[in-house]
Design brief:
By secondary structure, the chain is of the alpha/beta class. The chain is built from 9 helices and 13 strands.
Length: 254
C-alpha cells in the first residue's frame, strides 16, 4: 500500500528543470548519503536490505527525477560534512545545525527525532533538571547535533565525546565513565536491552530536525528538494515512512 501511494504521488509531481537535474544527478543517478548507524535515517535488515526514511524518500526523489537511486551510507555525520565538497554524493540526510551550514544548504525539516538521556544502573541523576550540574558526565556522539547543542547550552556538566558510535557508547557506560548518555530514542532503545538496570529519564533533551542537505551553491536543485519535502509531508509520505520503519520518539516536522 505504501509503495502504491509513493508511486501515485510521484506521477502527480512536476518534472525537474534541466538545471535541477544537473544539480541533483550530475552523473546520471542520484547518489544519496546518510548516517548508516543512525536508525532514525536507515536500518539494515538481516538480509542486507536497507529501510527507513532516508531510503524511502531518497528512492522517491530519484523516481521523480527519472534517474537510478544509489544509497551511500557513511559511518557518521562528520564524514558526510567533510566530504561535501568532494563530489562523491549528490544529497545527504542530515540533522539541521548551524555548525554545518557553511558547507551544505538544508531543505526544511521532514521529521523531528527526540533525543533523551539514558541513565546507567547506579547513576545518581534522576531527572532532566539534575543533568546540568557540576560533576555530572554526559556522553554524546562526537560532532553529532546532540554534541553541538549541549556544547552551546550546558553550563556545569562535563561532556564526554564518543567517536565510536553505539559500541563506543556502550563501552563508556560499562566502564563507568559517564553518568548519562544523550542520543535519539531509537539508539537508546537499542542500548537499553544491553544494559541491565539502565533507564531513560522522562522528557526530551532536544528535538533534532532531520533534513535533506545539498552541497553549497546548487540553487535549482535545492528549490526542487524544498518542493519535494513540502509535498512529502503534506501527502503523508513522511508519516508512512515513519510508521513503516517503526520509529519511536519521532514525528513529522511541523
Amino acid at each position: 500500500m505504501a509503495a502504491i501511494s509513493f508511486a501515485a504521488a510521484a506521477s502527480a509531481a512536476e518534472p525537474p528543470s534541466s538545471a535541477a537535474l544537473k544539480d541533483l544527478a550530475p552523473t546520471g543517478k542520484l547518489r544519496v548519503t546518510f548516517i548508516a548507524s543512525n536508525p532514525v535515517q536507515v536500518v539494515k535488515e538481516t538480509d542486507g536490505e536497507l529501510r527507513g526514511p532516508a531510503i524511502d524518500l531518497g528512492r522517491e526523489l530519484a523516481r521523480r527525477l527519472g534517474v537510478p537511486f544509489e544509497p551511500l551510507g557513511q559511518p557518521r555525520a562528520a564524514e558526510i560534512v567533510a566530504s561535501a565538497k568532494a563530489g562523491s554524493w549528490d544529497l545527504a540526510f542530515l540533522a539541521i545545525d548551524p555548525e554545518r551550514a557553511d558547507v551544505v544548504d538544508f531543505s526544511p525539516a521532514y521529521l523531528e527525532a527526540h533525543n533523551e538521556y539514558l541513565a546507567p544502573a547506579g547513576s545518581r541523576v534522576a531527572s532532566l533538571a539534575e543533568a546540568d550540574r557540576a560533576g555530572v558526565r554526559i556522553g554524546v556522539g562526537q560532532r553529532d547535533v546532540v554534541d553541538f547543542h549541549p556544547t552551546r547550552t550546558l553550563k556545569h556538566a562535563e561532556l564526554v565525546r564518543n567517536p565510536g558510535g553505539t559500541s563506543g557508547a556502550l563501552e563508556l557506560i560499562r566502564a563507568g565513565k559517564v553518568d548519562l548518555y544523550a542520543a535519539n530514542r531509537q539508539r537508546l532503545d537499542e542500548m537499553l536491552g544491553q544494559l541491565p538496570g539502565a533507564r531513560l529519564l522522562a522528557g526530551s533533551v532536544l528535538a533534532v530536525q532531520q533534513a535533506i542537505a545539498l552541497p553549497k551553491g546548487r540553487a535549482a536543485g535545492l528549490a526542487f528538494v524544498e518542493t519535494f519535502v513540502a509535498d512529502a509531508k503534506a501527502s503523508g509520505l513522511v508519516a508512512q515512512s515513519i510508521a513503516r520503519s517503526g520509529l519511536r520518539g519521532v514525528n513529522v516536522a511541523p
